[in-house]
Amino acid sequence: MNLPESYIPILIQAGVAIGFVAVSLLGAHFLGPKQKKGNSVKNQSWECGAPVEGNARTPFSIKYFLTAVLFVLFDIEIVFFYPYAVNFREFGMEGFLAVLMFVAIFFMAFFYVWKRGALDWDK
Predict the structure, then answer these.
(1) What confidence tier does 1 reach under pLDDT thresholds 50, 70, 90?
(2) Any idea of its EC number (predicted)?
(3) What angle do CA 60, 62, 64 make, to 5 degrees?
(4) Which of 7, 49, 109, 119 could form a disulfide with 3 if both were Cys (CB 3.0 to 4.6 A apart)?
């Protein structure tokens, strides 16, 4: 299999990342504390000395999840502006038009979310 030379750093980075995850998971499994089975006082929940109230499984409003997903979506979209900001002279007019199209799609998504009421906290 003949790979272009430009792929070698990417493959090295991917290998290091996968290796780090594997070493971290295996290290946590073998070197971490072992949980004892049973219902002892040590295994019960404890929150700053306050007695436990209610059940942790109570459902949350979908607004919290929607807000988290929207934050991640728009945050990741902003990350794509960095390569353009660093290399905007090299991209020329073609790169500028591509970024304008990207921004237009970004704003269409933002206005869609806004019109659907996902940003209204009072509802």
Answers:
(1) low
(2) 7.1.1.-
(3) 75
(4) 7
Percent of the chain with pLDDT over 90: 23
Compute the Cα dihedral for 29, 33, 38, 43 and give only its sign: negative
- Residue with more model confidence, 49 or 120: 120
Q: What is the mean pLDDT of residues 90-119?
A: 88
- Taken as a whole, the chain contains a residue count of 123
Read off the pLDDT band of 57 (50, 70, 90). confident
Indicate the Cα dihedral angle 100, 65, 121, 79, nearest 10°. -30
Coil/strand/helix, residue 28: helix
**Within a 13 Å sphere around the CA of 116, how many CA atoms are in the beta-carbon half?**
11
- Paired tokens of 42: 């040590």
